[in-house]
Amino acid sequence: MKKDNKKSEKIRSEERAANMKKLVSNNMSHIKYKYLVLSGKGGVGKTTVATNLAITLTQLGFAVGLFDADIHGPNIPKMLGIEDQKFHTYEKGIIPVYAGHLLKVMSVAFLLKSKDDAVIFRGPLKHKLIGQLLSEVYWGVLDFLIVDLPPGTGDEALSVAHLIDDVDGAIIVTTPQDVALLDSRKAITFARQLKLPLIGIVENMSGFNCPYCHKPIDLFKKGGGEKAAREMKVPFLGRIPIEPEIVIRGDSGVPLTTSNECPEITQAFEEICTKWNDLLEEKEILNKQSVKLGKCQNE
């Protein structure tokens, strides 16, 4: 009897999981590309990079969704100056919050009564919440959905990678020092084990130009991310230098890439987005060639 109950519960669990994946797939059917932004450890500026990449893509004319999947420390609304906003619902689902004309945002922060509230969830509850948000947030037609994950390779990253079948890839954010690079390599291995394609590394906090002598200072070394990308055989998307104004503008809710006040930073993000798009185009060409080759073989 116990074996039968366990078998029945397993079947029901598998059916619920399959149904949730189907709901997520249907809900995201109008999104062209879906990307995860990961980091092996905290403190590397992953959310700052994800936010400014999203803004840069909108400035290039793309419609972008930014999903803050950090349940315990959702910071994207603060960085975009929309932390006092709340989501709305209608017959198609949850409406994300707009942060500009082409940028839609969803975050657990919008669900909290107070900015000081803590979300005290274990794995199963986190998986359920992420599944609900992915299946019920109505993004509409998007060019890109960027999912900003918490540091590490735990529950949230596993849940998102499991629920979104057609993830187009993962972007790994690291800083140049050896400790950060060690963890970023683990994040790459994690992505490979989950069969997430088109991984690229962004090296953040890469060098600092002294405002007095105007000479470059490598506070956290430089070139480590590029070296790791070469050794792990993944694309290197680019590097972003240390710029104190990034922190100031992020805290004030007006990210630096919303203006051209710091051309070096703006250019760095634009170059990363350009290389990212080039890789996507190469992937599409290869996929089309693969389809044509398959048709010829079948014939």
Briefly, what is this?
The chain is α/β, with parallel strands linked by helices. It contains nine helices and twelve strands.
Average pLDDT, to the nearest integer? 87
Total number of strands: 12
The CATH topology:
Rossmann fold
Largest sheet: 8 strands, mixed
Q: Provide the gyration radius in Å.
A: 20 Å
Strand order of the largest sheet: 5-6-2-7-1-8-9-12
**CATH architecture label name:** 3-Layer(aba) Sandwich
Order of helices and strands: HEHEHEEEEHEHEHEEEHEHH
Question: What is the chains' assembly state?
Answer: single chain
3D architecture notes:
This protein is an alpha/beta fold and 299 residues long. It has one domain: 3-Layer(aba) Sandwich (Rossmann fold), CATH 3.40.50. The chain contains 9 helices and 12 strands. It has helices at residues 2-27, 46-59, 76-79, 123-136, 155-163, 178-193, 224-232, 244-252, 263-298; strands spanning 31-38, 64-68, 88-90, 93-95, 97-98, 103-107, 142-148, 169-174, 200-204, 208-209, 216-217, 236-240. The strands form 3 sheets. Strands 5-6-2-7-1-8-9-12 form an 8-stranded mixed β-sheet, sandwiched between helices. A hairpin with a 4-residue loop joins strand 5 and strand 6. The longest helix has 36 residues, at 263-298. Residues 295-299 have low confidence and may be disordered.
